[in-house]
Every structure is written in C-alpha cells, then in structure tokens.
Amino acid sequence: MKYNIALLPGDGIGPEIIEQGVKVLNAISDVYSHQFEFTSALVGAAAIDATGDPYPDDTHKVCMNSDAVFFGAIGDPKYDNNPKAKVRPEQGLLRMRKKLGLYANIRPVNTFPSLTFKSPLRQDIVEGADFVVIRELTGGIYFGEPSGRSEDGRTAFDSCVYTVEEIERILKLAYDIAAKRNKRLTVVDKANVLSTSRLWREVAQRIENEYSDIETDYMFVDNAAMQLIQWPKKFDVVVTENMFGDILTDEASVITGSLGLLPSASVGVHTSVFEPIHGSYPEAAGKNIANPIATILSAALLLKSFDLNSEALAIENAVKEVIDQNYLTTDLNSDDPKTTEEVGTKIAKLVKESKSIQYAS
Length: 361
Ligand code: IPM
Ligand code: MG
Known about the structure:
Number of strands: 12
Bound molecules: 3-isopropylmalic acid, magnesium ion
CATH superfamily of the largest domain: Isopropylmalate Dehydrogenase
Oligomer: single chain
Number of domains: 2
CATH architecture of the largest domain: 3-Layer(aba) Sandwich
Strand content: 15-25%
Order of helices and strands: EHEHHEHHEHEEEHEHEHEHEEHHH
CATH topology of the largest domain: Isopropylmalate Dehydrogenase
Distance between the termini: 25 Å
Structural class: alpha/beta
C-alpha cells in the first residue's frame, strides 16, 4: 500500500535523526512491499531562516495532505538566549499542534532490561516500569490568553485556560488507552491551588463513572513528580494538562536511562505527528553522535497508526537487539560509541534480516 509521509526534520540534530528514521522506514517498505512517499517541509529555526515564518503555510499544506508527519526537533540557541526575539522556532511547533488539532500527546515510557543500569535511579526501582503519559497538547498555559507584558514592560502574564470539552476529549482518549492496558488511570492536577485543575477533577469524577472497569486515582502534580521516580512501577496510564505533561515526561525519561530513547505520537483532529520527545540538542548537531533510537521508535508508532503492527514490531525488535548488543551512541555507550548513522544502518539491516528469518522459518 502507498502512504504519504511529511518529513519535518527541523533544527539541531533533527535532520540527522530523521535521516536514520527514513532509512529504517525504507527498510520496512523494501521487505514488506509498501510504498512510502516522503515530502520534506521546513519548520522551526530552519523555516525562519528561509522564510521568516517558523511554520509556513506551505508546510501546513504538506502536513494536511499527508497520512502522517514524521518530525525531528525544534529549537536554536540563538533564540533561547534572546528573550526579545519576535519570532521563535517553538512558535512553529505550537502552531503546528494547534492547526492540526493535535490535542493528545502520547508518550510511552518503558525500560529495556539491558539498560536499566544506565538509569540514575536504582535498578530495582526502574526494572519493569512500563507506563504511558497522555499529555493534553493544545490548551492550558501554552495557549491561554491574555499572555504578554504590561505597557510599562515590568509585569508579564500567561493564562492557563481549559474548557470542559477540552478536558473531556483528552480524558476519554486516556480511558480508551487504559482500557487496552492494565486498566489503571492516574489523573494528575493541582486541584488544591488552580481553578483549571479543579475543573479537570470535576470532569474526571463525572467521566470516571462511565468507565467503571478502570481504576481511577487522582494525584497532585508535585506528589506525582515524586512518586514517578520513587515508584515508577505503580503507574499504568497518566493523564495531565499541557505543562505538567511537558515537565513530567522529561522527568520520566531518566527512568529508561536516556532521553534519547523516548518516542511520542501526537494525535487529534487532522494528521498525526510522530516525534522523539528530546529537543534539538544543538551541541551535538552535525557531529553524528546523537541517539537516533527515539526517532526510530517514533517511526514504529507511525506504522502502528497505519495499522502496520508487524512492521512496527520488527522495528521494536531491531531496537531491542542493538540495545542488547550495546551497539549504541555515546549517551549510552561512552566506552565504545557508535555514530548516529551506524546505529540507524544497523537497525535498518536487522529489520531486513528479521523478515528473511520469518520467511525461512
Ligand atoms: C516538548 C518540547 C516543546 C514543549 C517545546 C520545544 C516547545 O519541550 O515537545 O516537550 O514544551 O512542548
Ligand atoms: Mg518538553
């Protein structure tokens, strides 16, 4: 079958890691006889440099006309260190999320047995941790109005805003995911302080009754930040608002041993976007040292969205194999590091071999 995939490599290490993801997708199309048609488009600082706009209309058109978007990373230190910049690369990512209606960001966190010793947490704490964070992605303080400065410039404000409808749709999606997993949902908020969180809790307490086979519990975000690293194994599905989800998922990534391992899927109204959760890592850009695994696992999530589940599994198994062989980039193997390209090529090769093994058996 033929699929159109938009490629948005973005900034920093984005282009290098997307290249490896494409290599692996091409290995899949070779051995499973699919046709992936890739269309590249600009986003982030790369798009500002070329057009002045971090999410140009042409890029949006490419995304809307594709079956999936494969996204690298966004961000550039020249903007990070200039709080007065009028246009910022991150605005491109936020506009893309809003315009594609991507209200849910799904971030699975699971450990690889041969890597748990890399986690800064004790091995017995992290071994077997397997949960997924559902982050609300198009509301909250990231998008609330008013946001800005007072006339004299001496006061700044952001608004956290949520409607019942926004809360309902993300909770329903989280319950549906929990129903397919271990049937436990943790709703994370700050209902002891914030009005928006109290609305989240009110809506959740109502919806909870529609999902009586799912065990729901509620946790304040500060407590959740503590429990996630103290008892990561107790979580199954976590659902939370935009900024809490941003912070908790970076925290959760240390459980696995490297931020370079975590993929994500953003889904909603229009085309879904698949991207690693790490950023543009500008210090590593162009050095061929960044870990491509989070991106390659995002490609596996992309295939699952097409219902190509055996193909996705072939990628996940190949990733497990490079991890078991310690064939890894410097973040995970500083003694004998492999390059970004070497790891991508190896995973693509293993994907091809896995299919020939299937035919042989
Ligand atoms: C993420 C990133 C983005 C976010 C930034 C780059 C705007 O941290 O996807 O988690 O805060 O959502
Ligand atoms: Mg983040």
